[in-house]
Amino acid sequence: MKVLIVTGMSGAGKTTAMKMLEDMGYYCIDNLPIQLIDKIVDLSNETAEMQKVALGIDVRSGNLVNISEIVNKLKAMDIQIDILFLDAEDEVLIKRFKETRRNHPLALGERIDKGIQRERKSLEFLKKHSSCIIDTSHLLTRELKSEIEKIYSNEYDYKNMFVTILSFGFKYGIPTDSDLVIDVRFLPNPYYIDDLRPKTGNDKEIQDYVMQFRESTEFLDKLEDMVRFLLPKYISEGKNQLVISIGCTGGKHRSVTLANELYNRLQGQNDFGLKIEHRDIGKDSLRGK
Hints:
The protein is of the alpha/beta class.
């Protein structure tokens, strides 16, 4: 198993980093008391879903000096453990606290800079023993995300963004989580051919029918070109989920066919994950139509 201790200066982005690690498949626990770390590790060894654990530790977690002893103990158990330390310049930290109107946990009723000084002193030894230090003073959120991905996702099958291609029927409503909605009701409808009506876009007969028309292949080419243009833009902006919804009247024939075709064309890309869903493909048969 892998344990990543996420720590650093208050206001440097620890909470944001924990959310990013959670998206990367880590089981995240924030503000964990120091004395519970070994108990969490024991639990993780018994739970398949907790093989990658990120523990948020800061000055509120107890006597940080004890971390060194705990780290050595875990390493002796052949557990891979790293410490990520997030830092930022004092001026930047002060500005962030003022913008959020939060009190520094160690200010104790004094000015923010006094709390920052106390925290730096208490975390100095931990910073020296950190596996990685990221200064977030001049990083945008998406830049911090990129740094964390480069450091902690190389050994995993992690993708910057996960794309879902979703077929649906307009008569059942547009999927509420759609990012892009594509209407293919302009294509010839196999529903009006008796032999084809019971079949779906997963059947070769429907696929051959829909894709025999010039407008189908021309539209698919343009759709693929647009999606390939947009994906790197979304990834660079830090978007991690994209739902492309393709709809026809009932979500059974044309939308399923086009969704399958687009999925096949986008497969094998290294910079995003991909899956396909057909939301309404069986609803007509369930209603006896």
